[in-house]
Amino acid sequence: MVEVPVGVAVVQWVLLLTLAGLVLGMYRQLAHVLNLSRKARGIGAGLEPGASAPAFYYRVKSEEHEVQFVPGSGSATLLMFTDPRCHTCEQALEALEHVAVQEGDEPGTTGWRFIAATDSSPTVVEALGIPAPDHVPLVCVAGHVTAQYHVRGVPYTFVLDTAGTVRGHGAASTARELRRLMRLIDTKVPVGP
User: E-strand spans in the chain?
Assistant: First the structure.
């Protein structure tokens, strides 16, 4: 068996740890540079809190006429962007329905309104046979609406206050996560399980 002098072994370990430190430092620098370039290009998910939420037109399934969604209008809004072909979105819609039932879906009762929006066409939604939730309208919007809201993936939820200002956003797919977003406006909303 070959014996390595203790001094050589210590030097090897010091060099190995120094190399690990350099790799970690380079990784952090690269992550910082990439993050700065993403911010400079405006790449990020969701409208910034404090921004005014844009109004948009939508259709409910195959109805001929479009309806305008005007953020605010005296009601706080939980607006979820979703896709009917996404399994996680199905779970998120169930959670949104659950929260809407618990909070009351009438704008006058709790001050909240709940909307699920998809950029899939009404014919696709109907062809897939997606059952619309009972208390949350599943509305079809044009693709530019998701771009206006800076939605990069679904499900993605925004909480808008009574004036139509974005108070928070995130990839909420459980009732607990949705209630946490709602608490940004109404601290009386229980987070619960």
Answer: 56-60, 67-69, 76-82, 112-118, 138-141, 156-160, 166-170
84: phi then psi, degrees, rounded to nearest 5: -65, -15
Edge-first strand order for the sheet with 112-118 is: 67-69, 56-60, 138-141, 112-118, 76-82, 156-160, 166-170
Which residues in 90-107 are b (16+ Cβ under 10 Å) and which e? bebbebbbbbbeebebee
Which tokens belong to 20?
A: 């690990």
And the tokens for 170?
């995130």
Fold assignment, 56-182: Glutaredoxin (3.40.30)
Nearest C-alpha neighbor of 170 from the set 161, 157, 159, 189: 157
- Whether the pLDDT of residue 104 is over 70: the answer is no
Taking only the tens place, the pLDDT of each residue in 50-75 is: 999 999 999 886 677 888 999 987 88
Domain boundary assignment for the chain: 1-43, 56-182
Amino acid at the residue 18: T
Q: What is the pLDDT of residues 137-191, one digit of tens each?
A: 889 998 899 999 999 889 999 999 999 999 999 988 899 999 999 988 865 655 5
